[in-house]
C-alpha cells in the first residue's frame, strides 16, 4: 500500500498538533492550578465570616448545591510544579516539606514510656458544663449555638489520635506532675508525620457574642497560607504535605446553624487552616462570635515534627 507525500505530511502534522495540544493542555492546567492563585484559591482568612475556602481535599463532597459546586477539588497544590523542569527548586518535590520544632512553651499531648497517653482530666469537661450553664442563663442564642456545636462534634469524624483509647489531654488543661516528667519529643502523640500539639483547645472569649464564656478557639496568625475543607484530619494533613512550606494545620468545625448551607458550616465538615510556622496557642484567639454567631468546635493543632517519622 502506497501513500502520497501529501497524505504522509498530513498524518505527521496531525500527530504534531495532537502532541502540541496535550502539551498546551498541561501548561493550561499548571497555569490555572491552585498553586498559582492567591492563598491557593481561598478568599480571605478563615476567621472572617465572609471568607471562602480554596478547595475541598477529601474524595466526596457532602453536597451538590450551588455553593459546593463553586469549590474545586484539591489538585495536588504545589505538587503540580513537580512536573516541570524547575522541580528542583521546590522542597515539596524533593522529600517533602521540612520538619520543624514545636513552639516554645508548648506542652503537647504525649505518650508515657509505658505505653499510654496523658490521662484526660476533668478540667475541660467541667469548664464546658460551666460554659453551657452560663450560656443558657446569659443568652438564649449562646445556648442554641453551643448545643448545635456539640451535636456537630459528636456526629463528625474524630482524629485517629483523638479517638483512640489512650486520648491525650488538651493543651488547655493543666498537665499532671507525672506527665511533666515525660519528654513529648521522645514520646509524642503523632498523626501521620505530624505531632499533635493540642486537642479540643478552649479558652475564655475576651469579646464578641461569647465574651466571658469558655469556647473552642482556633488559630489566627500572620503565617497563614490557605484553608481547605475536608471530612477527615488525615486528608487535611495530606493536603499540607502538598503545599510548599506548609508545616502546621489547625483543624476544627466552624458551626453556624443559621448558615449551614455554606460549605464551611456544613455539618461534619472540617476547616483545615494551613500555616508556614507551628503556631503557639497564644494565637488561638478565634473563638467565634466576633463577627457572626458561629462557634469553634474540636480545635486541634498538628505540627510537622521531627519527633514523628513519615
Kindly estimate the percentage of residues that lie in beta strands according to DSSP: 5-15%
| Largest sheet entry | 6 strands, antiparallel
Structural class: alpha+beta
The percentage helix is 25-40%
User: Strand tally, please?
Assistant: 8
Order of helices and strands: HHHHHHEEEEEHEEE
Oligomer: single chain
Q: Shape from CA axes?
A: globular
| N-C termini distance | 59 Å
Strand order, largest beta sheet:
1-2-8-6-7-5
Average pLDDT, rounded to a whole number, is 78
Number of domains: 1
Cα-atom radius of gyration: 23 Å
Number of H/I helices: 7
Uncertain segments are 16-30, 121-177
Organism: Kwoniella shivajii
Keywords: Signal
Protein name: Apple domain-containing protein
Concise synopsis of the structure shown:
This is Apple domain-containing protein. The chain has 7 helices and 8 strands, in the order H-H-H-H-H-H-E-E-E-E-E-H-E-E-E. The protein is of the alpha+beta class.
Helix-strand blueprint:
Blueprint (H helix, E strand, L loop, with lengths): L4 H27 L34 H4 L53 H16 L1 H16 L4 H4 L13 H4 L9 E2 L2 E5 L3 E3 L9 E3 L7 E7 L2 H9 L6 E8 L14 E6 L19 E10 L6
Antiparallel strand pairs: 1-2, 2-8, 3-4, 5-7, 6-7, 6-8
Descriptive report:
The chain has 310 residues and is of the alpha+beta class. The chain has one domain (37-310). Helix content is 26%, strand content 14%. It has helices at 5-31, 66-69, 123-138, 140-155, 160-163, 177-180, 233-241; strands at 190-191, 194-198, 202-204, 214-216, 224-230, 248-255, 270-275, 295-304. The strands form two sheets. Strands 1-2-8-6-7-5 form a six-stranded antiparallel β-sheet. The protein has a two-stranded antiparallel ribbon with strand order 3-4. Helix 3 (123-138) packs antiparallel against helix 4. The radius of gyration is 23 Å and the shape is globular. It starts with a helix and ends in a 6-residue tail after the last strand. Mean pLDDT is 78; it is low at 16-30 and 121-177.
Amino acid at each position: 500500500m502506497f501513500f502520497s507525500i501529501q497524505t504522509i505530511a498530513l498524518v505527521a502534522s496531525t500527530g504534531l498538533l495532537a502532541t502540541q495540544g496535550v502539551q498546551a493542555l498541561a501548561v493550561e492546567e499548571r497555569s490555572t492550578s491552585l498553586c498559582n492563585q492567591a492563598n491557593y484559591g481561598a478568599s480571605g482568612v478563615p476567621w472572617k465570616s465572609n471568607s471562602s475556602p480554596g478547595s475541598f481535599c477529601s474524595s466526596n463532597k457532602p453536597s451538590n448545591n450551588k455553593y459546593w459546586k463553586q469549590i474545586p477539588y484539591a489538585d495536588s497544590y504545589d505538587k503540580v510544579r513537580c512536573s516541570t523542569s524547575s522541580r528542583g527548586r521546590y522542597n515539596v518535590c524533593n522529600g517533602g516539606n521540612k520538619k520543624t520544632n514545636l513552639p516554645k512553651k508548648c506542652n503537647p499531648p504525649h505518650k508515657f514510656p509505658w505505653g499510654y497517653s496523658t490521662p484526660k482530666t476533668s478540667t475541660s469537661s467541667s469548664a464546658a458544663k460551666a460554659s453551657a450553664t452560663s450560656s443558657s442563663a446569659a443568652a438564649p442564642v449562646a445556648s442554641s449555638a453551643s448545643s448545635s456545636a456539640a451535636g456537630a462534634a459528636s456526629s463528625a469524624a474524630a482524629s485517629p489520635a483523638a479517638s483512640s483509647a489512650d486520648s491525650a489531654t488538651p493543651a488547655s488543661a493543666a498537665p499532671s506532675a507525672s506527665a511533666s516528667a515525660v519528654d513529648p519529643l521522645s514520646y509524642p502523640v503523632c498523626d501521620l508525620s505530624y505531632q499533635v500539639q493540642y486537642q479540643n483547645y478552649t479558652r475564655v472569649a475576651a469579646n464578641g457574642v461569647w465574651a466571658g464564656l469558655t469556647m473552642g478557639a482556633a488559630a489566627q496568625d500572620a503565617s497563614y497560607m490557605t484553608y481547605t475543607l475536608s471530612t477527615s484530619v488525615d486528608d487535611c494533613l495530606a493536603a499540607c504535605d502538598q503545599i510548599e512550606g506548609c508545616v502546621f494545620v489547625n483543624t476544627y468545625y466552624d458551626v453556624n446553624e443559621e448558615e449551614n448551607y455554606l460549605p464551611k458550616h456544613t455539618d461534619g465538615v472540617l476547616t483545615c487552616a494551613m500555616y508556614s510556622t507551628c503556631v503557639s496557642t497564644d494565637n488561638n484567639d478565634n473563638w467565634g462570635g466576633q463577627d457572626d454567631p458561629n462557634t469553634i468546635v474540636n480545635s486541634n493543632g498538628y505540627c510537622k515534627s521531627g519527633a514523628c517519622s513519615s
